[in-house]
């Protein structure tokens, strides 16, 4: 099944061809977790601070659904 | 020689050095400016009248050798924007130089009887007053150039045309290491308070100053090392980490993803053009143009370096800095996705002396009111010239969001206590909404930055859309922030020390080491609450009631896309946040 993935800020170093604000459709197996998607994308777990699924906080052990948008976010803050 | 209070009386053009009263000696930064305002300013006074005062103070550790990222200067007064107490603090050069001159605080009071304008020069030998004729009507870039040439290697605190006109959105500029304006005590109109004292600028020359004494060198040194290690280790604050590489505008895409980026005057939490005005886009533009830089430090000794210098289309350095708040207020909230417009508009704000948050929100209100269309960058840039020239329209815009909303018949007014909201939609991020609503400062994200756990997963993880526990969360952040605002450290040290306990303890040890105060981490929240209580009581004496601790009406009535949520935190919860002030 297909899910939409995106990464921001310092995590873009691992997907350098993804334009700023861009996303990509990828194929994952049914029953895959967000953590497994992260592994598939070869994102270092220690650099992923927050994950959002469909614009809400999510955990790595949650199972993804067809058409989900998953955003991987590194350490961010500001003011 | 102990520290001194420098009192600058603008009525008599006289400066006096006073011993520090015992009750002021233990405070610094925000704790000190708020204490002095509470002790010396009548809460009922007119902010622009003779009885208000501008208080300036470095933090506890500011100016001490090698305390990392500790160059903040606190400015306090009664605000013309909110009608309540205001503390606004800035980076730049002034804090370290005031501290090195042995000054605990500077109090500017009175008004010239001859209606003339002056600038003051503070040196180790005393204070001299100079007529400011050659500076009047000039923006801060020119003021910094003129004074920087005459007084090299000094800190320059000044106001642009907005401060001269005593507009409620006038900020106070502090020069950065390149002697450019851009480090602003922006919020709350404190530039108008300086203008109302007839003071265009203050030059601070620390040559020959006694420096900062360290009461317990071992305690300070150990604390400094632990804090610096935490900052250097954390993914957000380390070299080439998030803030260093992308600046605070790293948050544009993140808040947009969370549905909490206020767009087109707080009518949506999602902006389709967010990526174009993000920190990542800024970084790419700087690299492509081969000019400017990310990772710029706003004061000597900063090891985070989240500032930036942004170049124009031809590769000339244009402005420092485009912050998250700036990119959002002038961009997303006006429906504008043009980074070059944002850079030019930011430069206008820095020059005229305007708070960029209030200025961007004001343009958005003018757009909602029909003066121009959302997304009209060419029309928007012209509005800044109206303010600079002091046209009738410019004077309305320069008063900020509430005055502009009245002038243009807009009822969707995103303010609390007269001050407009920053770049986090309170309906989509509830905890920061509690901070906006309850802090004595008016809507202010830095007063209690619950974004750390609600969005960034720093200091724990909390669902931003949930109401649960948000009163307590906000109060905890407000109290801790009041303490950090007193240290002189940049608030951004909070991110590593929230995640790394040794860094938190080290931060407190540096304060204990410099001051000799016997404090530990357990004292941070109680001391912060002492400060909040003073500020809260000032506002009550100025006439504030529970009715002032409420969100804008439209946020209860209107549902915000994309989550389609409204404001649902009860008034009882809001009233509970500061109930302890009268219960203790």
Architecture overview:
The complex is a heterodimer of chains A (79) and B (584). By secondary structure, chain A is mainly β. Chain A has one domain: Roll (Ubiquitin-like (UB roll)). In chain A, 9% of the residues lie in helices and 28% in strands. Chain A has one helix and five strands, in the order ββαβββ. Chain A has one helix spanning 34-40, and strands at 2-7, 24-27, 50-53, 56-58, 69-73. A five-stranded mixed β-sheet of chain A has the order 2-1-5-3-4, with no helix packed on it. In chain A, strand 3 (50-53) and strand 4 (56-58) form a beta hairpin. The model of chain A has no long low-confidence stretch (mean pLDDT 96). The mean pLDDT of chain B is 97. Chain B has 25 helices and 17 strands. Among the domains of chain B are: 4-204, 4-Layer Sandwich (Aldehyde Ferredoxin Oxidoreductase,  A, domain 1), CATH 3.60.9.10; 249-415, Aldehyde Ferredoxin Oxidoreductase Protein, subunit A, domain 2, CATH 1.10.569. The longest helix of chain B has 18 residues, at 470-487. With 584 residues, chain B is an alpha+beta fold. In chain B, helix 2 packs parallel to helix 22 (524-541), helix 17 packs across helix 19 (470-487) and helix 19 (470-487) crosses helix 22 (524-541).
């Amino acid at each position: 099944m297909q899910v939409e993935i995106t990464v921001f800020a310092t995590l873009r170093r691992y997907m350098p061809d993804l334009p700023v604000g861009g996303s990509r459709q990828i194929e994952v197996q049914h029953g895959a977790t967000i953590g497994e998607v992260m592994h598939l994308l070869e994102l270092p777990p220690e650099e992923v601070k927050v994950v959002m699924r469909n614009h809400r906080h999510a955990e790595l052990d949650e199972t993804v659904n067809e058409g989900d948008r998953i955003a991987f976010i590194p350490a961010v803050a500001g003011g | 020689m102990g520290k001194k209070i420098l009192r600058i009386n603008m009525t008599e053009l006289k400066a006096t050095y006073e011993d520090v009263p015992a009750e002021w000696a233990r405070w610094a930064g925000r704790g000190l400016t708020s204490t002095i305002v509470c002790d010396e300013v009548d809460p009922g006074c007119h902010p622009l009248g003779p009885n208000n005062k501008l208080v300036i103070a470095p933090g506890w550790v500011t100016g001490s050798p090698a305390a990392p990222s500790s160059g903040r200067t606190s400015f306090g007064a009664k605000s013309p924007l909110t009608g309540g107490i205001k503390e606004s603090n800035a980076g730049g050069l002034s804090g370290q130089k005031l501290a090195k001159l042995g000054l605990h605080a500077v109090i500017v009071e009175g008004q010239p009887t001859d209606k003339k304008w002056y600038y003051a020069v503070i040196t180790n030998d005393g204070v001299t007053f100079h007529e400011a004729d050659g500076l009047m009507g000039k923006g801060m870039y020119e003021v910094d150039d003129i004074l920087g040439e005459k007084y090299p290697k000094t800190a320059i605190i000044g106001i642009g045309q907005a401060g001269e006109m005593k507009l409620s959105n006038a900020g106070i500029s502090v020069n950065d290491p390149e002697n450019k304006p851009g480090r602003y005590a922006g919020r709350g109109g404190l530039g108008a308070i300086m203008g109302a004292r007839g003071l265009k600028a203050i030059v601070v020359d620390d040559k020959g100053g006694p420096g900062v004494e360290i009461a317990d060198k071992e305690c300070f040194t150990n604390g400094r090392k632990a804090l610096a290690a935490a900052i250097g280790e954390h993914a957000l604050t380390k070299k080439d980490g998030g803030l260093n590489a992308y600046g605070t505008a790293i948050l544009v895409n993140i808040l947009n993803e969370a549905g909490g980026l206020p767009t087109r005057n707080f009518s949506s939490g999602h902006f389709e053009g967010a990526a174009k005005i993000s920190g990542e886009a800024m970084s790419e533009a700087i690299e492509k143009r081969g000019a400017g830089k990310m990772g710029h430090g706003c004061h000597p000794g900063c090891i985070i370096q989240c500032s930036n210098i942004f170049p124009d289309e031809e590769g000339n350095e244009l402005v420092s800095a485009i912050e998250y708040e700036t990119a959002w207020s002038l961009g997303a909230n006006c429906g504008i996705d043009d980074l070059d417009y944002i850079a030019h508009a930011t430069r206008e704000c820095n020059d005229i002396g305007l708070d960029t948050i209030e200025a961007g929100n004001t343009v958005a209100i003018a757009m909602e009111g029909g003066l121009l269309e959302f997304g009209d960058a060419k029309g928007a840039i012209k509005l800044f010239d109206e303010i600079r020239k002091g046209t009738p329209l410019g004077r309305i815009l320069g008063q900020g969001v509430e005055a502009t909303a009245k002038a243009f018949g807009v009822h969707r007014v995103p303010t609390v206590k007269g001050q407009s909201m920053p770049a986090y939609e309170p309906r989509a991020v509830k905890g920061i909404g509690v901070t906006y609503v309850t802090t004595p400062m008016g809507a202010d994200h830095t007063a209690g930055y619950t974004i750390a756990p609600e969005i960034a997963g720093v200091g724990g993880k909390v669902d931003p859309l949930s109401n649960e526990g948000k009163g307590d969360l906000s109060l905890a952040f407000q109290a801790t922030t009041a303490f950090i605002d007193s240290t002189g450290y940049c608030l951004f040290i909070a991110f590593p020390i929230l995640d790394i306990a040794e860094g938190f303890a080290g931060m407190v040890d540096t304060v204990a080491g410099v001051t000799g105060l016997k404090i530990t981490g357990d004292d941070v929240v109680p001391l912060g609450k002492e400060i909040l209580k003073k500020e809260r009581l000032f506002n009550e004496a100025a006439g504030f009631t529970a009715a002032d601790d409420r969100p804008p009406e439209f946020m209860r009535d209107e549902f915000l896309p994309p989550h389609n949520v409204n404001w649902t935190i009860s008034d009882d919860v809001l009233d509970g946040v500061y109930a302890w002030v009268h219960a203790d």
